[in-house]
Amino acid sequence: MLAAKSCFADKPSESIDIPAGAPKDKTTVTVGRTDPSTSGGHTSDISELVPHPDRDLVMARLAQPATTITPVALSSQAPVTGEQLTIAGYGRTSTGWGPVKLHTAAVTVGTIAATGFDIAAKSPSDTTACKGDAGAPALRTENGKPALVALGSRSWQDHCLDANAAKAGAYDTRTDDIRGWIGTHILRRLAVSQTASADFTSDGVGDLVVKDAAAGDLLLSAGNKGGSFSVPKKLTGGWDFTETTAGDFTGDGKPDLTARNASGDLLLWIGEGSGNFSRVTPGS
């Protein structure tokens, strides 16, 4: 899970630096539920924090993986001044101290820096972000689905209840350009039982296919120049594969995969050169 470092800092107005490792206080996270007063979703303690060195951003490892919740995609497209994003959070609004249900607002991207950017309410009379919205995702729609562009960092509290702020807008931390940092740390913390490597994405950089020993999934993590890896993409789910091997078994110049399932069958995935595969059974 991605969050703001300031959520875990003792005095975020003075410093947002936090140590890596287990959180100082017992911390519980709930995902897949828009109303905390209801049931459903997935709840877990946080077992480990991995703070980003120069951004208000931290990766939080769940003690119990949320295997039934589909995560939002990480956008690789940089924000553009003037574009509209949607932020979602549980913080204060112009009329309520602590809303029970998730609420959203449309915002416009302002000045963009290397690690973040300003946001403003689409309408001057609307609330953008308030206390309680640190870590709130800023989303755009890509290919018909939401994609994460940034996380809420700080707000000037304009139009927030009882804030009496003289300054409008807020500031978000970019996530579009740190996909390699995120993916590499995910790989390091997976219980991997086997790997296969080849340039599955045809970009001249080696990629990894790993087996998540806990979930039984085969995952593809594309390599980036400099030795980092993208966020793993699930190739298969819940199957007990062994003996995963990469090679150009079809002679088309694109690496393929073979693996044996729990029944002892040897299966072939034909690589398309884009990180995608079509599965066939050898000999069929």
State the main characteristics.
284 residues; mainly beta; six-stranded antiparallel barrel; four-stranded antiparallel β-sheet; 40% strand; elongated
Uncertain ranges: none
Binned, the helix content reads under 10%
Q: Percent of residues in beta strands?
A: 35-45%
Oligomer: single chain
Integer average pLDDT: 87
The tally of helices reads 1
What is the 3D form? elongated
SSE sequence, one letter per element: EEEEEEEEEEEHEEEEEEEEEE
Our Rg estimate from Cα atoms comes to 21 Å
Strand order of the largest sheet: 6-7-8-11-10-9
Q: What's this, in brief?
A:
This protein is mainly beta and 284 residues long.
Describe the structure.
The protein has one helix and 21 strands. The chain has 284 residues and is mostly beta strands. A six-stranded antiparallel barrel has the order 6-7-8-11-10-9. Strand 12 and strand 13 form a beta hairpin. The longest helix has 11 residues. The two termini are 42 Å apart.
